[in-house]
């Protein structure tokens, strides 16, 4: 509830590494200026990161009239991180170095009906094995695996409590994965994964309060408030997709009517298209990705039905995003995930106009709306970042007398 | 954007005084246990509060086997705080001692058409003069005056940017007030005032994330996240009243359609009643307070129209509050302000049932919904708390070499 001095120390450690990754090589003096921390605090945190081999000393620069300053840079090969994006229609796994470059990727499609937990675990285990083999990294260098799974998750117990699109209830996903994967495992959902990716590497880095709007099969909002992720008291904040936009409107799988998701999630966009032109060739029944791709091509070709379908969707989105602007008064709203990536600039343009029609003047004036600029899968990147944060969080324990191992590491990593 | 060490020191100072006010007398050891701060930090902060005469030493208690422990208590007569609640239909001013007991109160009615800024300033100045005279406190002991004004406010410049119910735009309210009032002035809006009152003295004290739902002429949500008030990047967060509940629904004075406020603000409740029974004797056209009071009496007398009108209102409220539960995942939602106070338990019961129909299971299970238990006007109390926070914020400056005066104190207080 309240931030302890250890929380603050961990947050500062994140902040310093984030800055080093963004601007390597850099000096302790530059880091102090960029983070607002004292030089002494920065020096201590840099020392910890050097001990962990996450960063290295890379030489000196002259300072005007003073002693040469030591420079540090991220030690890209000091470890590997794995991010797992379990989505409704696919599993994607990426392996990153410590500069968060993608070294290997594996994709597995999931057809409708393949969503049993054991099947999903099989896909994930195969893909994780594949990326480690592709990259040729030693197992001991994998610092952790972050797993993103849709819906409501209990990150402490590793249980997927409710994944509405699969009707999963209380699936002990990390326990199941731990039978196949020996690295430390961390779990959260795609809202929070893509938000953390924007905080570390994207449009929210170094900015004030930000909201990351995830537009995929499901939709939601990652909340970056006061420099960190707002999780709520039971890690389920951000369920914007299940806020009411149209009282008594379309039935949602959550049981409520008129949820935002039923109008702007990929299946909702298909309904928008069907209501506009039931016989449209753009519509690929039972195939969300094909329909969204067809819409994107249609917009590029100035197809009037595609343009109208995107405008109708943007009208719903604009009202829903204006709610976020009015409630959170953020500095930036980032549109992320595969639907936002596919519909891109044309969607962004329509959304900006629609938000301006619905939001209050004062918070609207303070808010910028942008597309995610993260070039790779932001959910994989964010999931890998959870593993990075996990590794940084254990620094205190590691340097203390008693070494603790992460709760989910059932066996020692192969070496 | 990021919390500096000075912000953290100020927040800790609030936390310690809050705890002393809640549980006087108390020891430094108890304060350390209750706040999670180190004993050394508590001792420093207690020393500052003693220097300010906000608290006093009041004796010793035995500790099992150890030295007697010094006890401190709030110094109720160490200063006075004034809270001003400028509402759409009245101005209320209360004067508090440092234990936040009400020592004097002045109310001024505002009839429709009396809402010109100069008229409002006249009412406030008269009422402030009245409470100081009633309480017989010396001007020098008034630490500050907190002013709550509806709508969007710039608390740094003291400008009421937009008060929708009066059509105020960019009114320099604190400059106007400073011509009549010589004490340090602080300004914010009723959402944030009642939220801060709950944080210091009400249902949110010592709890995790909380949302304070204000139900009056206008409606909004005060957001208590991570132990403090979430303001957003331009102090306009919490505008829940202007989030869309019914796309293309009732026209709102903000220009949007279907805002929450148009269904659950006092004028919206009058529309609900009129839609149900246009000729109802409960309806007092052009008189919100009389209508809400009649509804409350009707519910107590089991009048079917009154019961149905409250149920209809609770249905809208339940969907809107479920949005807050799904987005913020709070530990507690507090219903505050005069409409909530008037409709009380019957409204609370209906709202709880309606929220349960709309919210997701996991955040719903973590959330308690309660009525504000603050016995006096929570907006006056919260406004006075802004003045208290202002006085505590200047501690650093006061003990430093250069004494700074609050920006809005134009002349020295009379002595
Ligand atoms: Zn829903
Ligand atoms: Zn409105």
State the gist of this model.
Chains A, B: Pfam families: ROK. The structure is a homodimer of 415-residue chains. With 415 residues, chain A is of the alpha/beta class.
Overall description:
The structure is a homodimer of 415-residue chains. By secondary structure, chain A is an alpha/beta fold. Chain A has 3 domains: 5-74, Winged helix-like DNA-binding domain superfamily/Winged helix DNA-binding domain (Arc Repressor Mutant, subunit A); 78-193 and 377-391, ATPase, nucleotide binding domain (Nucleotidyltransferase, domain 5, 2-Layer Sandwich); 204-371, Nucleotidyltransferase, domain 5. Chain A has 14 helices and 16 strands. In chain A, strands 6-5-4-7-11 form a 5-stranded mixed beta sheet. Chain A has a 5-stranded mixed beta sheet with strand order 14-13-12-15-16, sandwiched between helices. In chain A, α6 crosses α13 and α10 (304-328) crosses α11 (338-358). The longest helix of chain A is centred in the C-terminal third of the chain and has 25 residues, at 304-328. The first copy, chain A, is globular. Mean pLDDT of chain A is 90; it is low at 398-415. The interface between A and B is large, with 59 and 60 residues. Bound molecules: zinc ion (2 copies). Chains A, B: It comes from Streptomyces osmaniensis. Chains A, B: This is ROK family transcriptional regulator.
């Amino acid at each position: 509830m309240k931030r302890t001095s250890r929380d603050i120390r961990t947050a500062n450690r994140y902040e310093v590494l984030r800055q080093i990754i963004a601007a390597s090589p850099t000096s302790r003096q530059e880091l102090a200026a960029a983070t607002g921390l004292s030089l002494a605090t920065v020096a201590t945190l840099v020392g910890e990161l050097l001990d962990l081999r996450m960063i290295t000393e890379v030489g000196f620069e002259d300072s005007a009239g003073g002693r040469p300053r030591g420079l540090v840079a991220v030690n890209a090969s000091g470890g590997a991180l794995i991010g797992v994006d379990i989505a409704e229609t696919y599993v994607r796994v990426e392996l990153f170095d410590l500069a968060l470059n993608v070294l290997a990727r594996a994709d597995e499609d999931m057809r409708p009906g393949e969503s049993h937990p054991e099947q999903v675990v099989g896909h994930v285990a195969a893909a994780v094995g594949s990326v480690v083999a592709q990259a040729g990294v030693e197992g001991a260098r994998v610092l952790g695996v972050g797993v993103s799974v849709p819906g409501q998750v209990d990150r402490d117990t590793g249980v997927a409590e409710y994944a509405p699109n699969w009707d999963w209830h209380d699936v002990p996903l990390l326990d199941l994965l731990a039978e196949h994967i020996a690295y430390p495992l961390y779990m959260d959902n795609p809202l929070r994964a893509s938000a953390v990716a924007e905080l570390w590497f994207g449009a929210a880095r170094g900015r004030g309060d930000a909201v990351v709007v995830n537009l995929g099969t499901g939709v939601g909002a990652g909340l970056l408030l006061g420099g960190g992720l707002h999780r709520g008291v039971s890690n389920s904040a951000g369920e914007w997709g299940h806020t009411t936009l149209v009282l008594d409107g379309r039935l949602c799988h959550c049981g409520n009517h008129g949820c935002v998701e039923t109008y702007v999630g990929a299946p909702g966009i298909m309904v928008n298209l069907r209501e506009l032109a039931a016989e449209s060739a753009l519509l690929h029944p039972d195939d969300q990705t094909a329909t969204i791709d067809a819409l994107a091509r249609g917009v590029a070709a100035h197809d009037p039905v595609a343009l109208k379908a995107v405008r109708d969707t943007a009208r719903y989105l604009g009202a829903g995003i204006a709610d976020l602007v009015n409630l959170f008064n953020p500095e930036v709203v980032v549109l992320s995930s595969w639907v936002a990536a596919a519909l891109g600039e044309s969607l962004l343009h329509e959304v900006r106009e629609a938000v301006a029609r619905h939001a209050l003047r004062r918070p609207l004036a303070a808010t910028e709306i942008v597309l995610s600029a993260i070039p790779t899968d932001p959910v994989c990147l964010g999931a890998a970042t959870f593993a990075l944060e996990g590794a940084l969080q254990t620094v205190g324990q590691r340097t203390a007398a008693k070494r603790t191992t992460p709760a989910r590491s059932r066996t020692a990593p192969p070496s």
